[in-house]
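Notes from hallway chat w/ T.B., transcribed later so I don't forget. T.B. wanted the structure written out for a chain they're using in a teaching module, and asked if we could keep both sequence and structure tokens in one place. Agreed to drop them here.
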Amino acid sequence: MTRVPRTDTAGEEHPVPDRSSGARATSPRPTLEAVAARAGVSRATVSRVVNGGAGVRAPLADRVRAAVAELGYVPNQAARSLVTRRSGAVAVIIAEPEFRVFSDPFFERQVRGISRELVVHDSQLVLLWVEGPDDHDRIARYLGGGHVDGALAFSLHDSDELPSVVTESGVPVVFGGRPGGPGAGSEYAVPYVDCDNRGGAREAVRHLVGLGRTRIAHIAGPRDQTSALDRLDGYRDVLPGAGPELTAQGDFTVESGARAMAELLDRGPAAPDAVFASNDLMATGALRVLHGRGLRVPHDIALVGFDDMTSIAEATDPPLTTVRQDIEGNGRLMVRLLMRLLNGSDPEAGTPASVITATTLVRRASA
């Protein structure tokens, strides 16, 4: 017969001895009392430190943590959840089809930053993606079911109601990227982390102007994402007189960058002498077309991307000049803002302010 350990609400397991014939005695797991004795504090103090409670002076907390490490004490997560009312998990919601999530290195870098920061806070990552409105009910039920402590949502689209679905679920949430769709207004007071998309685009175009280029085209990203719209605005800030013939539409994929580049070249009569692409993937598609047409980069047409995904930008021929944003660092910042919401360490401060991170132009051989 299997013996089930008795568990108390402080996160401690008490092994039940097996008295069946032939059973070998095993060493019991360290208890809260053992940790308290080693640290020279009360059991209640140990419980508060282990369960993340406040009100324990730093020297005492350090002694408790040292005793926990020495004894190898591991709290029972289910019992700990009863005390803290936390699941120890965070939902990461990506508003893109599955094939995009696994084919675009942007998402890998963003999730990597989120995952590494969650480890610091002893939380698990639960990955969810949304392929369309049919997934909204599923996401709402999951978030509202107490499975996670909070949510991080990114790659939001203006026409999507996902922001309102997430915020109305009742869990704390942080957005990756400035939201702009239904339910993303100021009434929700949801913090977000984004890079300076408009400023980075201005720097890219100014660089091309500084090279003496006079017909600078833009391959724009999806019209329903604020990052793409902000980069288009940055292009127009520097070139307010650029006509519509110098802008072609893409969707942040390699294939769309190739189609847009071919369109720009075929419009005539004068081809652009420089192109600013709204992300690195579209820039690589554009580069493929330029090579196929026998055009030299940067001699005939200079090319600049956005994101600085080094696995792409350093591998192109020639290497890609691009605007760098700290994708992994932004993922970490999202987690830190969420933890401030969850911990409520400064109630008077209210909702944490959104963060806009700086961008930098990385000059390589393409421009």
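Follow-up for T.B.: The radius of gyration is 26 Å. Might be a good example for the class.
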